[in-house]
């Protein structure tokens, strides 16, 4: 009996310690929603002229139609093929549509391989106006890399996509078309007297989440039983943390209008794998329409995500739950 009481006491003590650590970390991050973090001007380096160029900010008016944000951490091997596919698509579309303008923003998340060199090679080839590199210096996490890219992009529409090319870049048109349809409807409701020629897609708040949910049945059939068990458990925790609405929160293919990105990425706190879940949570709290759209996806060797990522994801979900539910993490409405 004494042994059982000792085990219970140790268990309760451990739970209290973990909870205290989560609360303290959530408190430490209460001001990291980046409204003030961006006060320091980010500078780009032009590898051709060696001149320094000031980065734009998400609060500035849009200068491009489309921005593609590519986070990269030690992607020397996979990045060249993915970037070439992206540029072939963008250049081909621009040649067919003279009004189409674009940029690719690569965010180097503290890589220690040749990622920066690869990115600069593409900047030299396609010019700084079409491809830009933002180096973070040290590794800060995929979420922070994407946030940084979003905050310094020039597009009316902003697409985040992974550096491995797992999702075909052409699928962005699926997200784009759905956003355009919803944005036009939202704009007509907001201002019935406005004309279509006055419509700017970047001014309407809409988000579109690429989804692999339609591939789940096949994935369950081929994955090990314990991986399925862990993934189901993770999906349950995500449901409890962010609620329903998006079945596949973790697909790295998401598009936002400029107005939506400005509100979302000035509020986000999580810096690593679970920032996607926080985006869903924030969309709901900020009443930003969410679309979930099926995209083609293929497994690319070299993924940074492993089963060891699950504890880190659970840690971030715990932080998010405590941060918002206690009111320590504020949501800025502007």
Automatic annotation (TrEMBL):
One of its GO terms (cellular component) is endoplasmic reticulum membrane. It is an enzyme of class 2 (transferase). Its main location: endoplasmic reticulum. It is found in: Endoplasmic reticulum membrane. Residues 67-177 form the Glycosyltransferase 2-like domain. It is a single-pass membrane protein. Its EC number is 2.4.1.117. The chain crosses the membrane at residues 6-27, 229-246. Pathway: Protein modification; protein glycosylation. GO terms for biological process: protein N-linked glycosylation. InterPro entries: DPG_synthase, Glyco_trans_2-like, Nucleotide-diphossugar_trans. The keyword Ion transport does not apply. Keywords: Endoplasmic reticulum, Glycosyltransferase, Membrane, Signal-anchor, Transferase, Transmembrane, Transmembrane helix. It catalyses: a di-trans,poly-cis-dolichyl phosphate + UDP-alpha-D-glucose = a di-trans,poly-cis-dolichyl beta-D-glucosyl phosphate + UDP. GO terms for molecular function: dolichyl-phosphate beta-glucosyltransferase activity. It comes from the Eukaryota. Belongs to the glycosyltransferase 2 family. PANTHER family: DOLICHYL-PHOSPHATE BETA-GLUCOSYLTRANSFERASE, GLYCOSYL TRANSFERASE. This is dolichyl-phosphate beta-glucosyltransferase. It comes from Brassica carinata (Ethiopian mustard).
């Amino acid at each position: 009996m004494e042994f059982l009481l000792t085990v219970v006491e140790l268990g309760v003590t451990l739970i209290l310690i973990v909870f205290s650590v989560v609360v303290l970390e959530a408190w430490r991050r209460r001001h990291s929603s980046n409204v003030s973090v961006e006060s320091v001007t980010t500078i780009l380096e032009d590898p051709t002229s060696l001149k320094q160029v000031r980065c734009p900010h998400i609060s500035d008016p849009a200068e491009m139609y489309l921005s593609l944000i590519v986070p990269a951490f030690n992607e020397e091997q996979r990045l060249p093929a993915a970037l070439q596919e992206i540029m072939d698509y963008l250049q081909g579309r621009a040649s067919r549509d003279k009004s189409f303008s674009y940029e690719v923003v690569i965010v180097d998340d503290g890589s220690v391989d040749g990622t920066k060199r690869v990115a600069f090679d593409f900047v030299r080839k396609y010019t700084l106006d079409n491809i830009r590199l933002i180096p973070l210096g040290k590794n800060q996490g995929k979420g922070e890399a994407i946030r940084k890219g979003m905050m310094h992009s020039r597009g009316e529409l902003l697409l985040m996509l992974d550096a491995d090319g797992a999702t075909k870049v052409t699928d962005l048109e699926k997200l784009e078309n759905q956003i355009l349809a919803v944005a036009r409807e939202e704009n007509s409701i907001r201002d019935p007297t406005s004309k279509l020629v006055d419509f700017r897609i970047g001014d309407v708040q809409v988000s579109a989440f690429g989804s692999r949910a339609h591939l789940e049945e096949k994935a369950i059939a081929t994955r090990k039983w314990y991986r399925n068990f862990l993934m189901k458990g993770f999906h349950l925790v995500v449901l409890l943390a962010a609620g329903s609405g998006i079945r596949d929160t973790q697909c790295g293919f998401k598009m936002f209008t400029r107005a939506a990105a400005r509100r979302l990425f000035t509020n986000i706190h999580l810096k690593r794998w679970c920032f996607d879940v926080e985006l869903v949570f924030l969309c709901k709290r900020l009443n930003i329409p969410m679309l979930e759209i099926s995209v083609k996806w293929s497994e690319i060797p070299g993924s940074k995500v492993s089963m060891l990522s699950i504890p880190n994801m659970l840690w971030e979900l715990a932080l998010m739950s405590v941060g918002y539910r206690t009111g320590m993490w504020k949501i800025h409405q502007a």
